[in-house]
Amino acid sequence: MELNKKLKFENWLDVFMEEKEVNTERVFEFINSEGIWNYMPLSVVIEFIKQLPNNQKDQIKTQIMKIDFVNGNVYNFFEYLAKGINQF
Question: What's the half-sphere exposure (Cβ side, CA atoms, 13 Å) at 10?
Fold first, then answer.
């Protein structure tokens, strides 16, 4: 069951990225809390998302769907996630 749900999410995310022509080569640049510049490609953010527990993936999927529904910019959300990943 868990593997099936994981594969469904990964497939959904891959299809979403392709259909919306999201550039996974895009690199987010930001300064961390220590004042150091960080660079993180969207492809790293996507791979990180795919490794999260199912409940967190569900939350991310819901948020992406909400952003898409209002024709929002998903890059802003992915940048937000990149900054959070950087905190690990």
Answer: 12
The residue among 51, 50, 52, 67 whose CA lies nearest residue 13 is: 50
**Residue numbers in the chain where pLDDT is lower than 70:** 1-3
* Closest to 79 measured CA to CA, from 26, 37, 36: 26
| DSSP code of residue 52 | S
12 with 61: CB under 8 angstroms? yes
Structure-token pair, residue 45: 């953010």
Tell the burial category of 64 from Cβ atoms under 10 Å away from its Cβ (0-12, 13-18, 19+).
Answer: buried
